[in-house]
Design brief:
By secondary structure, the protein is an alpha/beta fold. The protein has two domains: about 35-55 and about 90-225, P-loop containing nucleotide triphosphate hydrolases (Rossmann fold, 3-Layer(aba) Sandwich); about 235-315, no CATH class. About 30% of the residues lie in helices and about 25% in strands. It has helices at about 50-60, 80-90, 100, 110-120, 125-135, 155-165, 185-200, 210-220, 240, 245-255, 290-295; strands spanning about 5-20, 25-35, 40-45, 65-70, 75, 90-95, 170-175, 205-210, 220-225, 230-235, 300-305, 305-310. The strands form two sheets. It has an eight-stranded mixed sheet, sandwiched between helices. The protein has a four-stranded antiparallel sheet with strand order 2-1-4-5, with helices on one face. It binds adenosine-5'-diphosphate (ADP) and magnesium ion. Magnesium ion binds near residues 51, 176 and 177.
Length: about 325
């Protein structure tokens, strides 16, 4: 890491909603976090918690309702036109399913060098050489450059998608569940590839997954998202010992089957599912109190690198 404290990406009070009028639904509720230069930051939460919405907002695939996104200290929230295109030189993304991003009618060599060519980083004459170089770096056969995607397995296609994304050596690579559609044996290859790219190029990652063990293995810090709210941010080395939020503990116990401290019996409180106020996790929380139904806990620093949104922080 070049500078331990310099954030490469800062998300500040980000709000994203879908729909309009009475159908309007807020999906991200004022979330804030940052990613340091050279860091691999994990974003974890169950399906529907808003993980892809975060990455889609950073990539400008969807509009932001409120809040700001800063890259190297510069506000990129409202970029458009040429400046937005230029941003894709610095920020690239790998999607869950390579099949959605790879064009079936384009030869693989052409596909993986297209972004380089768009940024005039590779001359047409050097394109074939660059394609073979990228394929080799991904552990793929150079001969694939002249083949079509249908010829490749799912894991190979995902490596092709990574080759294209890293071809311009972006500073930030967003990986949205890049291994969820793959077999476990292939997952390990992709994760090793991402680790090697981080070592060799100092690449910074936003690594999105619902797989907590994978994230704790790969990432330095973990952001836990629950229904569009960040409930905890902490270093992954401290995850098992230091996690405080009851939702993080629930994820840990589901993932590792760890002998978590027995949750106290759920206090009998009035039905809280229907009230919009209070903590996002109140209806499931084994530690909830009367106050959790009325007040929303703010994300606050409880130790270096550790933020928690829970009234337990005060205990
Ligand atoms: N384009 C969209 N239009 C309407 N609702 C959407 C759209 N994209 C996502 N959502 C909703 O936003 C919520 C969060 O979705 P998403 O960010 O995809 O979650 P995750 O990636 O964590 O599974 C879900 O309730 C989903 O239905
Ligand atoms: Mg998703």
């Amino acid at each position: 890491m070049s500078d331990n404290n310099a954030p490469l990406l800062e998300i500040k009070d980000l709000v994203v909603s879908f729909g309009t009028g009475r159908r309007k639904k807020e999906v991200l509720h004022r979330i804030s976090f940052d990613i340091k230069e050279g860091e691999c930051l994990g974003l974890v939460g169950e399906s529907g918690s808003g993980k892809s919405t975060v990455s889609n907002a950073v990539m400008h695939f969807i509009p932001v309702e409120a809040g700001r996104i800063l890259f190297r200290g510069q506000d990129i929230t409202a970029l458009h036109g040429k400046k937005l295109r230029q941003m894709y030189r610095d920020i690239q993304m790998v999607f869950q399913s390579p099949d959605e991003s790879i064009s079936p009618h384009m030869k693989i060599g052409r596909y993986i060098t297209e972004v380089c060519e768009n940024f005039s980083l590779t001359r047409s004459a050097d394109r074939a050489v660059k394609a073979r170089e990228l394929l080799r770096a991904m552990g793929l056969d150079e001969a694939y450059a002249d083949r079509y995607p249908a010829f490749l397995s799912g894991g190979e296609r995902q490596r092709v998608a990574i080759a294209r994304a890293v071809s311009v050596l972006p500073s930030l690579l967003i990986c949205d569940e890049p291994t969820s559609a793959l077999d476990v044996s292939v997952q390990a290859l992709i994760v090793e590839l991402l680790r090697r790219l981080q070592r060799e190029h100092g690449m910074t990652y936003l690594f999105i997954s619902h797989d907590l063990p994978l994230v704790s293995h790969l990432c330095q810090r973990v952001v836990i998202l629950y229904q569009g709210e960040i409930v905890e941010i902490l270093p992954s080395t401290h995850l098992a010992q230091e996690a405080r939020h009851p939702y993080t503990k629930k994820l840990l116990s589901a993932a590792f089957g760890s002998a978590m401290e027995k949750a106290p019996a759920m206090a009998s409180l009035p039905d809280c599912n229907r009230t919009p106020d209070g903590c996002a996790f109140k209806s499931e929380c084994p530690c909830r109190e009367e106050r959790c139904l009325r007040e929303r806990p703010e994300l606050a620093c409880i130790a270096p690198e550790h933020q928690l949104a829970c009234f337990l922080a005060e205990k």
